[in-house]
């Protein structure tokens, strides 16, 4: 998977290849924090509507009752929280390893 490398100092970010063992699904869908965020979001959806990755990643409403602009805002907030939780969990793991 290609992603911008924001660690490079100055200039345009370089592209780096992440190994297939770290797909986007793991980072934004399968980690502990993302599962909890998804669980909270799923509870707010109409009965019988299943939340899929594409609904969040491409801002596609999972039900016709959901207004597309409202759903887009929900998705952006969801992805922001998932990223924040993922970073916090990484920091906690790193701190635990350093103290361990």
Report low-confidence residues grouped into runs of 5 or more.
Answer: 1-8
Largest sheet: 2 strands, antiparallel
- Give the H and E element order: EEHHHH
Distance between the termini: 32 Å
Mean pLDDT: 78
Query: How many individual β-strands?
Result: 2
Strand-pairing-aware structural class: mainly alpha
Strand percentage lies at 5-15%
How many individual domains?
Answer: 1
The radius of gyration is: 16 Å
Query: What is the tally of helical segments?
Result: 4
* General form: elongated
Q: Indicate the percent of residues in helices.
A: 55-70%
Structure description:
The model is unreliable at about 1-10 (pLDDT under 50). The protein has four helices and two strands; from the N terminus they run ββαααα. The longest helix is centred in the last third of the chain and has 32 residues, at about 70-100. It has one domain (about 1-100). Helices cover about 55% and strands about 10% of the residues. The chain has a two-stranded antiparallel sheet with strand order 1-2. Strand 1 (about 1-5) and strand 2 form a beta hairpin. It is elongated, with a radius of gyration of 16 Å. By secondary structure, the protein is mainly alpha-helical.
